[in-house]
Each structure stands twice: as structure tokens, then as C-alpha cells.
Amino acid sequence: MKTDYDVIIVGAGAAGLAAGKICASANLNTLIIDRENRTGGILNQCIHNGFGLKYFKEELTGPEFSCRLAKQARDAGAFFALNSTVTSIKKLADGTFDLRVLSRENAVQHLHCKAILLAMGCRERTRGAITTPGCRPAGIFTAGNAQKLLNREGKLPGKSAVIVGSGDIGLIMARRLRWCGIEVKAVIEIMPYTAGLTRNVVQCLNDFDIPLFLSTSVVNINGKERVSSVIAAPVDEKRQPDMNKAFEIPCDTVLFSVGLIPEMELARQLGIKENQATGGAEINSNYSTSVPGVFTAGNVLHVHDLVDFVAEEAEYAGKCIAEYLSGKQINNDFNAAVGKNLKYVIPNRFDPDTDTRFLFRPLIVTDRAVLTASVNEKILWRKTLKFVRPAEMITAEISADTLPGAVVFDLEESK
Q1: What sign for the dihedral angle of Cα 146, 46, 217, 302?
Q2: pTM of the shown model
Q3: Across the chain, what does the average pLDDT equal?
Q4: What's the half-sphere exposure (Cβ side, CA atoms, 13 Å) at 298?
Q5: Whole-angstrom Cα distance, residue 5 to residue 329?
Q6: Is the CB of residue 138 less than 8 Å from the CB of residue 225?
Q7: What whole-number distance in Å separates Cα of residue 276 and Cα of residue 278?
Q8: Between 16 and which of 119, 175, 263, 407 could a Cys-Cys bridge form, CB atoms 3.0 to 4.6 Å apart?
Q9: DSSP assignments along 46-77, one per residue
Q10: pLDDT tens across 268-324, in order?
């Protein structure tokens, strides 16, 4: 394998493949690296359909979606290094990058490039991350691990399950477990609303009569050799459990679907500035980070609700990389920040002379709201929204010259 490239993409999931296709199509010498033995990332264990409706205009399974993207990237001329792990990245004095890569085939190898796209995705939060008390018996999984065990290895995780958290993987696994004859006793969510898409609540819980307990917390896991039950209790506005109303649910399996954490270790090595609201990097409107030449997209940047949006975002990042390497300059002069009822906005800085696509994560549940953009406390742009949910991103295309300065976005419920 050669060692010099124009672009190296770390991660061969949906983001890496989509960006790789664009970079290679722009005649950039492009390498996509992944530690797994096949492309696709988490999509390979998502055997349910529902993917590709926006991106491919066709309903696909996860493996079908990733295979199409991989073929497009290969056909465009991208190279691949699978079973390979990037252990370190250094920026050199001339502005280029050195990547230290470990693989069984090539042992330790140093690769060189002019630009990098970080597309490593996320890892799941575990029981330990939310400090759920109780015993440590067999039968406790993250939802993703249980999905891999069932869909790729063909092994049942248990006979009766409780799912903690209502993230999309957990909701989809509730349905998958039921299809396999496993009784799903309940999905328990500490927030007063679900963390997953509404369509998944309907198709995976309501259609199968699986109980959903909102504003409820698991306060204990029982069992010696194997899980025997969980203790749950309703919580107040401060998320403190009311133990007087606690109840026990017998089960032999517990799945945690309590959020995702961006894989930011390589970004931290480079000293990239992080966005505390997303757990990913702060970016400009061309998806470049605080380190020139390093770009990022997909779930390592912020957790998306649909893989179609991941691929679309990464395509745009790929175009921006090509423009960067051609010498195009973008003036990301102004900050973008959030105010009322919004968790974050992407990008964090923008060019007022260029049309910008902003992405938001709402913090309220409402059927009607107004999104506004203010410069110097003066509202210069507004958009009416319907059916706002924290699980579903908001997008807004704002034309050039609309926001001639640092902007603050607010979201307010309307009648």
C-alpha cells in the first residue's frame, strides 16, 4: 500500500463512504481507513429496513445502504485500508499530516496526507455511564451489543427483557426481540418524552403493545448469576425517584439504550476544540475544525436521527475538502450560538457571504414552534415549525447576507 494521499478518511461507515465518494470523484487521491474487516460500520448489524428513503429514494436495510455507498466510493476511485487502526495523528510543520496505522498486514505504518476527515462515529453509553445501581449479573447489554449478538452472530440474548432508555437502537431492538419470541416487559425512559424517532415509537412499541414508562428510572438491578428483575420508580422534575411508588419487573435481560458518545480520541490528540453541547468538534460552515486541514462529519460530529442525513452531511464535507485543497478560502467570521429551547447549532461559525445550512437539536416537545435568528438582539429571520421533538433535528437554510453578524437562535412554542 502506498503511503502518500491527498485525503485520508478515518472511518468507513456512512459518513466516511459518502465523503470518500465525493473526494475521489474530485480526482483527489483518497484513502478510507477502518478498523473492521468490512465497510459499513454499525449499518452492518442494522438488518431492518427504513434506510435510504431520502438519500437513495428507496427503502433499504442497513447493509444494503452501506454496500451501495461502498460501491460508489470504490467506483469513484477511493482506496481502502480495512483491519487497520489509526493510533495517532500529528500535524507536520508544512501543514500536512502523519498518521500512525496498525494492521496485521502492514504492522506499523506511517501514512501522509494533505487533509483529513474524521468520521469515526460514536460508541454507546453504558450502565456505568449513568451509574445504575444494583448487582452485576449476566444478562446486561447495551442495545447495540445485543443487536450485534442477535443479527450478526445469531444468538439470543435472553428470554425476557427490559430496555432502559428509549434511543432508536433500543426501540428497534424491542421489536427485534419480540420477533424472535423474547418477551419485552417494558421500555423505561427517565425523561418525559422519548429519545427516539416518533416512527420508531409507533412501529416498534405501539404496534407490538410493548409498555413504555416515561419519567421513570431503573433504580436497581437484581440477580446473582443472571438478571432476575429490575426495580423501577417514577421520577420528579429533578429526576429524583419516588421510592414509595417503586415497582419490580421480573426479567432475565436488561438492554441499555441511553445515548451515544462521539469517538473523539484522535481529535483530542490534535488539540481540536470541542463542542460541549454535542461532544464532537466545533466546526466552521465548511465542516473544518479548529485545526486547518482537519474536517469532520457524521455521528462523531453530532448524533443524527437518520443515516440519510449522515451521508448528505458527509457529501457536503467532501465537497468542502476538495475546495480547501484547491485553495478556496472561506471567511468564517461570525459565531452561531443557541438560546431558548435549543441544545446546539451546527456549524458554530459561518460565512455571511455564503448560504448556510444550520442544524439544531430542540429541547421541547410541541406541535408548533417558531425558530428565530437574532443579530444584536434584533430578529432578522424566522421560521415556523410543526411537530418539534428532541429526537428529530431541525434544519434551516439561510441565504447569504441575511445574518450580518454573530447570531443567536431561539426556539419558542407558539399557539
Answers
A1: positive
A2: 0.94
A3: 96
A4: 32
A5: 21
A6: yes
A7: 6
A8: 119
A9: --SEEESTTTTSS-EEHHHHHHHHHHHHHHHT
A10: 999 999 999 999 999 999 999 999 999 999 999 999 999 999 999 999 999 999 999
